Amino acid sequence: MKLPIPMTSLALGTTLLLALSACGTTPSAPSVPDASLSGQAINCPDHDCSGPSPVTPLPPTPPVTPPPPASSLPGSGPNIRLKVVIDSVTARDNIEWTGVDEFYLLGDLLVSKPDGSRKSVPLVVPTFGINEGQTHVLNQVVLNEVVTPGSDVIGKMTAFDEDFSKDWLSVREKVIAAANAAASGAALLGPKGVVVAGILKGMISVADPILSYVDHDDKLGDINVASTVLSYSMVPKIFYKARLYANGWYDSFDYDVRYHIEAERTTSALTF
Questions:
Q1: What CATH number is given to the structural domain containing 204?
Q2: 71 in a domain, yes or no?
Q3: Does 20 map to a domain?
């Protein structure tokens, strides 16, 4: 047997619904955080889940220090030992018709450091006899300096066939003195190629003065030593071959001059 619902209860329920409707409020289910926000920090003070709070940024990642540049040079230490070596001379055809050539070399090498300092290094390869089809091995070190990375070397050499014999012990001293005098002071401050050419010109004038001989020595040609910048990553040995050649009615010759530039790392003190 069902008991009748009192009219008083129905009236109260109806009154409550009408009151809520009049206020613009309707019952709703409890709010649930958006699933798309999963994984984010959500702060709901006083149970108010209106959205996520800003995420605290991570501390910045410290910069990565790159590794030092790889070194191709042998040895260790902060400095570089630089050498220039005259390896050999080969004659395919010599200038003298009746005998061997008396071959010699004069030259100047200019070493420059990043701080702007420069050093002139004159070179003398005294005469040696060589005939057609021969190779004369020298292995003569004409420069040996310790410098900083970033330094460079440039130079110029001139080859001759000696027509009249010289006292090379005496000539060598005079040629070196002339080169050192020409390289003093402001003379080293000009363009590098001009500097070495000027110094070499002074050396030649001493080795083969105008009034000392009936005939000048035969000039076989110039060899330009290209500018080479030194670094830890450079090739340890760079080989060059310069050809000296003429095929005229009066002068005919054909020579190869081989030389190389070598470098290694060292703890030795700088030489200038």
A1: 2.60.40.150
A2: no
A3: no
Number of domains comprising the chain: 1
- Model confidence pLDDT, tens digit, residues 6-35: 444 444 444 444 444 444 454 554 454 454
> What pTM does this model have?
0.73
Give the pLDDT confidence score for residue 210 in this predicted structure. Answer: 55
Q: What's the mean pLDDT in 117-132?
A: 96
Residue type, 61: T
Of the candidates 138, 88, 107, the one whose C-alpha atom is nearest the C-alpha of residue 221 is 107
Chain centre to alpha carbon of residue 72: 12
CA dist 247 and 152 (Å) reads 35
Q: What one-letter code names the amino acid at 18?
A: L
Domain assignment of residue 133, given as a range: 79-266
* Two structure tokens written together for 224: 């330009």
| Position 143 in a domain | yes
Q: Are 234 and 263 in contact (CB under 8 A)?
A: yes
